[in-house]
Amino acid sequence: MYHLPNPPEIFEGRTDERAWLCGRLAQSPLSILWGPLGLGKTGLALRVVADLRIPRAAYHSALDTPEDTAFLMSFGWCLAGLAGEAVEWLAQGRSRADLVMLTIELAERAGAVVLVDDLHAVDHDLTERLLLSISRYARKSRFVVMTRTRPRHEELADKALRIEPLPEEDLARLVRRCAPLRGASEAAALAREAMGSPFRARRLVLSQGADPGGSLLVDLGDEAKRVVQALRVLRVAVALPAHVARELDERGLIRLTAGGVRLDDRLRSLVDAEPLDAAEARRTALSLVLHTEGLAAAFEAVRLAIEEGEAALCASLLDQHLFALCAAGFAEGLFELLARLESRALLGHRLGCADWIHGGASLAWAAALPAPADPRVRLLWCRLLVHGGAVAQARDTARALAEHGPVDVQTDAALLLADILRHTAEVDASVALLERLEVRTPSQRIDRDLRLATALMLRGDFARATDMLASMPAELEGLRVEERRRLRATLASALLASSRFRELERVLGAGEPPADCRPTELFAHLALAVERGRFDLGRRLLDRVEPFVDESVYLRFVHRYNTLRLRLFAGPGEGLEELARELAFDAPLFKLPELVVWSFCAKAAVDVTWAPPATLADLPTGMAVPEGTARVLHEAWQVIVAARRGAATASFTAPPDLPTDIGLVAGRAEAEAAIARDELDHADGIVEAALELARREGFAIEEANLLALLLDVRLLRAARGTSARTLVEPIARALVQAAERLGSARLAAEARLATWLVSDRRDPAILLSMAEDPASPVVRRRARGLLGREVTLDAVDRRIVERSAHAAAQREEAVVVLDLEQRALLLPSGKRVDLSSADLHVRILEVLVRGSGRATKEDLVLGAWGLPSYHPHRDDKRLQVAVHRMRQVLEENPKEPALLLRDGDGYRLGAPVRLGRLGASAM
User: Whole-prediction pTM value?
Assistant: First the structure.
C-alpha cells in the first residue's frame, strides 16, 4: 500500500454501489464515483479496496496540487514510488499529453489499484483527457476516481456511478453504531438532520449534535450559489445563463427538462439543508422566471410577485397573460393566489378568474362583494351575479352600465343585459335591444349576432336565425385567438339552441373536450355527447361539471338535466323520479322561465316512463311560458301526457321550421295524439318521418325514443289482425341495435317483450321473468298486466295488454290458464279448479311453468318444498304422493293422465299453460 488511508471503521448501506465497484475492479481499468460533497464517495472506495484485500494500492488527492502540470507531476511521483521506479523522466518540460501517458505507464508497471480523489479540483479538460486515456490504454492497473462533477464525454458514461444521498434508515444505523449509547429516537433525529450525508452524520455524532458546518455549495461561484438558492423556492423549470447552467450541471445539482432547468430531486434534501435568505432567493427567482418563456413560468412569476407584495408587477403580468393562463388551466390557482394580496388593482383580475371558473367558491365570493367602482370590473362582477342566481340585481346593474356607463363598457353591458332578458322570458325585449345596438369592432358584431340568433330561435323566427348562424364559424376564424376562444362558447350556445348539432360538432369536436375547457363550454360538449348517445363521454363530462354546480344555477340545470336524460336510457333508474322532482322544483331556477320549462318537460319524460299515469306539474304560480321553442315544447308534452292519460280528443299540430330536437318532440306529440284517437296508420307515418329526420341529423336519443314509440304503434296494429311478425320484428331488431349502441338495458328489454308478444309460442316463464325486470318499468308493468296482476297502466300500456291478450286467445286452443293471484286453474274443458287451499299444488305448477313446462324431480322438490338439498330416498316418495293427489284434482281420468306427465327424471305439462286472470282472456 502507498499513502492509502484507512477505510471507515463503521460503514452502513451502499450494498448496490459496493457490488457495482467490485464488479468494475474485476473487469475494467476505470471506475468513476461522482456526486456532491459529503455522500461518502471516498469512504466507499476505501471500504471496497479493504474488503477485497487488494495487496497493491495507492491513493492521491488532487486538492493539494490542483494546477494542471503540478497535479500530473505529483501524481507521477506517487505512482513511481508504488512501482519502485526512478523519477528523473518526470522532469519539467514535458507536455501534458506525455505526462498523462507516463502516469498510466507507471500504474501498469505497478499493476496496482489507484484511487484518485477530488479530481473536480483539476481543470475539466485535463481530467477528461486523463480519464479517456486510462479507459483506452490501461490494462493491468485499475483506477478508481472520486469527483463532484459528472464526466461529460459519452464514452465515460457507462464507467461512472452517481452516489446518491444515503437513505435515512441506513444513516440511523450508522449513528447508532458510532454512538451506541444514543437512543433510537435521537439517532433517527440525527439521521434526518444529516440529510443523506454519512460525513455529516459522523460530524454530528462527534460534535454532540451541533451543526458541524460544511456546505454542499462550498466550491460554487457566488452567482451559481444564488441561482441554487433561487431554484429552491421555484416550482417550475427556468432558463439559466449558460455558464451557470454548465457549472451546476457538472456537479449534478440540476436536471434539464423541456421547459428549462430545475433542481435535481435526488439532491433536494441536501440543498434544502443549506441556509436560505428567503427574500434574496425570491428576488433572484423572480428575475429568472421573468426571463423564461411559457405559461408555467408566467404563473410562477405572479406567485413570486404576490409573495413579494409587488401588486403593480403582478397587475402588469396579469394584463399580459391572464387570458392565456386561464385558458391553460391556471384560473383556480390564480383565484386562490390573488386572495393573498389586497389591492384594488388586482380585483378585476380576480373577477376575471372567477368568470372563467364560473362555479364553486368563486361565485359565492363574487356575490358577497359590494359593487366595484370601476365600470369594467363591475361588468365582470355583474356577469358572475347572473350565474350565481342574483338575476334581478344583475339586470339592474347591466342596464345602468348600458345606459350610463363609459362608452367602452356600454356595448358589453348591453350584450349581457340582452342575455339576462332572454333567460327571464323577455325574449322580445332582448331581440329589440340587440337589433338597435351599435357595435364598434368585428368581435362585438359577431357577439351581438350570435346572441340575436339565439333569441330569434327562442322566439320562433327560425329562418332568420338559421341564416345568421350559417356564416358564423367562418367569421370566427378571422378573429384573434383570444377573441375566437371567448366567442366560441357563445357560438356553441347559439348552435345548441338551434339544434344545429352537425355545426356544433365541427366547432367543438366529437371527442373529449380539452382540459382547459371552461365550465360554461362544457354545457355544449355535454349536451352534444348525450344527444349523440356517447354515454361514457357524457358521464365523464358530468363528473367534470359536478364540482361547480353548487352555486351556479346554469350548471346545476345542465348537470341534472343531462343526468336525467342519460339515466333514463342507460340507468340506473333508482332515485330518478326524485332527481326529476328536484330539477323541476329547484327554487333558484324559477327566475329563469326558459330553463323551468325544460326542467318540467324533463320531469314529464321521466313520469311517462317510470310512473304512469303521467302528470305534467303546473309551472310556478304566475310564471308565463316564454314564446317560441319553450312554448312549443311545453304544449307538446302537455299533449303527450294527456294522451297517455287516455284523452282521446288530444290533438297537436307542430308549427313549421322548428329546431330539430323541438321538432322531434312535436312529432312525437302528434303521433301520441293519433294513437289516442286510434289513428294508428297515421301515427305510424308520423313516427317514420320523424325517425328519418333523427337519423339524418344524428339525434341518437330521439331516434331510440321514436323507435320505442313506433314499436308500440306496430304492436297495436298487429293486434288488430295485420301480420304481426312482419310489422313488429324489424322494428324490434332496430331497437335492439340502438340499445346496444347506447348501452340501454331498458330499450333492449322493451324490444324483447315486443318480440315475445308476436312469437308463435309465448313462453310464460319468460313473461314471469320480465314481470320482475329491473331495467325497464315499461316492461315490468306490461308483463304484470299480461299476467293479470294488479298494476297501474297508462293508456298505451292498457291497449297493448288488452289487444295482445285478445290476439293470443284467438290463436291458441286447448290451453290451461293458471291464475296465480286467485290461485285457480281453468282447464281446456272449461272446468275451473280452485287451488286456494292447495298451496303445494300451486307451487309445483309454478315451477313447471317457469321451466317452460318441464322440471326435474330435484327442481320440483327444491322449488315447491323450499328444501336446501334433494335426496331421492327421502324426497321422491313425497313428490309421488303430491303428483298423485294433483292428478285426482286436475285430470279428467287420473288413471290416464293427459295434463301432468312423467318425463324422464321429472315431469312435464301435457298442454300449454298460460298465466292470466280467470274471468279475463288468457294471457
Answer: 0.55
